[in-house]
Amino acid sequence: MIYIAVALYCEAKPIIEYYQLKKLYAEHPWQQFAAGDIRLIVTGTGPMQAAIGVASLLSRANRNKRDLLINVGIAGTAAMRLQVGRAVLCHKIVSRDTSHVYYPDVLIRHRFDEGVLETFSRPVTAADRQFVQGELVDMEAAGCLEAAKMFLAPHQTTVVKIVSDALESSVLSPERVSGLIAERMPDIDHFISSYRQAFSIRQDVLDETDEKWIEAVRSELRLSETMAGQLKQMAVQYKIRTGQPLDALRYDAGQAAESKQEGKMRFAQLRQQLLYE
Fold first, then answer.
1. Are the CB atoms for 125 and 169 separated by under 8 Å?
2. Contacts of 168 (CB under 8 A, 6+ apart)
3. How would CATH label the architecture of 2-200?
4. Pick the residue with more confidence: 40 or 277?
C-alpha cells in the first residue's frame, strides 16, 4: 500500500482528484480517502496530530515490506536556492521540539530537489529565521516519521514538501495551497510509480556473479545488515534499469575499508553510481 499523510484538506484535494480517491466513512476522527493501493489521511496540523494520525492509520493496516508512507505538504523555506513551487525530497528531518533527527533512506531515483527540513510545533515567520537550522520548515514531518518508525523501515518513509513561501507572515489561501501541490503531482506520481516498480520486482534478476560481487562489497566496506539490504535493493534496480553487470561499475574492488567511516563514505559513492548512472 501507498499511505499518504497530509495536514490539511487543501493539501489533500489535488491528490484526491489526481488519483480519484473516494472518502471512507468509519468511526475515527480523521478524514481518509482511498482507491486501489493508495490510502490518504488528513491528520491535522502539528507534529503531535500528525504522529497520532499516522500511528492510527498504520496500526490498523495489513502492512508488508512493499508499503510506503509519504508525507506531502507545503513548507516555508529559509534557503535562497529553493524557489516557491519547487518540490523537495527531504533526506534529513529535524524535530525542533525533541532535537531528534530522522534520515529516510532515499533508494529511488526522483525528479525532486533534496534538502533538510526542520519541524516546528508552531508557525515560523521571518522573525524566526536566525533560529531555523533547516532549509525548509513545516509542522508535521517529524511527527509522521516518529510514528512510522514503529511500523516501517527507513526506506519505506518519504517526505516531499512543496515550497510555499520564504517565511512570509501572510496566510496562503486554500486554493493557493492546492494549486502548488497540483502542479507537482506528476512528479509525486512518478516517484510513487518508481517505488512500486522497485519493490515489486523479482530479486532473481541478480545472477551468481552479482551475488558474489555484493557479498564482496559488503565484506570490504564492513556494511551493517541494513546497509547490506540497501545495497542489494539498489543493485536490483540498477540491473533492471541498465542491463549491465554489477562488476562493470567503477568500484575499487579488493580494497578493504580501514574503518567504518571509510566504509560509509565509499558506500555513499557507490550508491550514487547505482542510483544515477
1. yes
2. 76, 125, 126
3. 3-Layer(aba) Sandwich (3.40)
4. 40
